């Protein structure tokens, strides 16, 4: 996608050339690279809300810049370098695929602090942060299992990485718990943001008889498709209330603001340290959006009870007994999955018949 | 795993329609000897203008008309730059794409999250735009190969100096072709926002314009080939998603690669044919991308 490259570098160049004229003393410059446009209404939109939240919180003490629609891969390295050269001292890279680019650029700029979302590679100046989306998926899975009439629920995946696989497993486990006959269909779109492709993926699921589906891609296109077909879906990353009360019956919201505010504060007062955190419903980072009246009250109650149990730490969505897809044992009765195991999860649980892409 | 082939074909027609429109438009432009790489920019402009008009008027048909006008309007900037100011066509086309993406991102803000009116269904459960797209294929073929204006257009594309010497208005023919290409690209883009995705999202064409450009080459500048190419690209997308939904393990990366691979193979075949002295059929229009200038 050449055009995005050009756009990105143009933006970065402008940012860097505008600098010297306005340079004031010790304003912390905070940079962001986004994988999609801020107008995606989902993932990137939520990160940009958090960016606006830190601007509001710290006002004149900071200055933020962002580059949107940066492709994952080599081009991310260029965008990150541009931000670092432009004087940003704290840089948020908000997609899994930026991981290696962040590590490479961080080596070249030891005095710049990096925050990488959903990755697992860390360094002295690279922290990672992630959200326990699978906690939210458990709640959505419960609703999906109760709402389906065809007993076929669907999942639009982006890339087969642990974060997405956790979500599919968690949704399936909890749908199955409330509806033993439920079947899960999975379609991988191999993109985070391509509305037409996401809509086609939703259409393929609907054609297979799926009547409730979840998505782990960033646009609202699948919901529009669900609406057309009379199926149900969920808001992803963002609340997507435009589609409430139907087809969007609930949503999983990523709330990055508290974390961003905290980390920028630490960078300002010099206490910033590299770390890897994984925050969930209990920390307010994963939020379940309003469950609409399209969901029967008892199902809503059940879903909210599960949410509260997860938030309090009383219940872990991956609690044994659970087998792997091939039937071999994974978690024994009462045993819960460790964070390390989840962070490298590369298999489905027993009962999902869809093949795992190689 | 049984998949109903008919339902795959219906989804395929929908997935192929936006690229079919854009590629047919670009085909006419290139047959007139102009290389307009701004297809993506014209498509996204059409996607927004069409969506906005459909939303405001509650009529998808009006949306497509607006998209055609908007696509044509943007293409006229390209025409002015390349035909009168003789700017480089490749650079101008790329600029048009960037311009379209930026402009729509700016003006599209109020339309985010807004819903579109339902598209008009046509015969056999396929909407009218799918039918129109397929009807355009024989029409354009007939125009290019069986009519005098079509012959003039091809003459301009093959050798603009000779066409000029014969008294044909090279510049006018090219401007008309560019405008036609812009209108079709705009309608193709609007199909994505009005019929496929049913809403406006920034950057929503996501590279469809580039696929359309590849298809024109794949088709060897022949309208029927464009139809085959659009179905191939659309079919691969739809089929791999359907197979996945049906629980079949599919090599997605390989399948996604296939149409591009086919394009490269066609390019190799074309140049091989030229090398062995059998040029003509299947080769690019001889004046493609070359600027034309005459004092009077």
UniProtKB/TrEMBL annotation, chain A:
GO terms for cellular component: plasma membrane. It comes from the Bacteria. CDD domains: PBP1_BMP-like. The keyword Nucleotide-binding does not apply. Residues 1-23 form the signal peptide. Pfam families: Bmp. Residues 28-314 form the ABC transporter substrate-binding protein PnrA-like domain. Keywords: Signal. This is BMP family ABC transporter substrate-binding protein. It comes from Paracoccus kondratievae.
